[in-house]
Design a protein that fits this description.
Low-confidence stretches: none
Radius of gyration: 32 Å
Distance between the termini: 83 Å
Structural class: mainly alpha
Helix content: 55-70%
Order of helices and strands: HHHHHHHH
Largest sheet: none
Number of strands: 0
Number of helices: 8
Shape: elongated
Mean pLDDT: 80
Length: about 140
């Protein structure tokens, strides 16, 4: 048998779906998994505000603040008075404060509320692209 005859023989052996009365086999239905909801962001706002307003020594506040992400700290700035924010910046130090400012939506507003030296220290410690965006 040559190649063409082999192919013709194979075709005869395999039924054509269109020529059969059989229903095509349906694909197994896979149940849809319910969409998982994004986990809710823990509400650190009240914790952070209470920590900043507490009578703990600055060293203890600093250690506890280091347990929070910079974005969480940035999210509470609007809840603090100008005096409380300045205390927070002092406790954090310029390095950590500059990391917090990378997450602040309107950093110029908060920089304007602090003394020029502290603002300059924070800007100096920010990544260049974040500092440029701030200015």
């Amino acid at each position: 048998m040559n190649k063409i005859e082999n192919e013709e023989e194979l075709m005869k052996q395999q039924p054509n779906i269109e020529e059969t009365d059989e229903e095509p086999i349906a694909a197994a239905e896979v149940p849809e998994e319910p969409e998982e909801e994004a986990p809710e962001r823990p509400d650190y706002d009240a914790e952070l505000v209470a920590l900043i307003r507490s009578d703990l020594p600055d060293r203890e506040k600093h250690e506890r603040l280091n347990d929070y992400h910079e974005n969480d700290i940035a999210q509470i700035l609007h809840l603090l008075s100008a005096e409380e924010r300045n205390e927070l910046y002092r406790i954090l130090g310029p390095d950590k404060a500059s990391e917090v400012f990378a997450y602040v939506e309107n950093p110029a507003e908060y920089l304007a509320g602090m003394d020029i030296e502290r603002a300059a220290d924070i800007l100096e410690n920010m990544d260049a692209d974040d500092a440029i965006d701030t200015l």
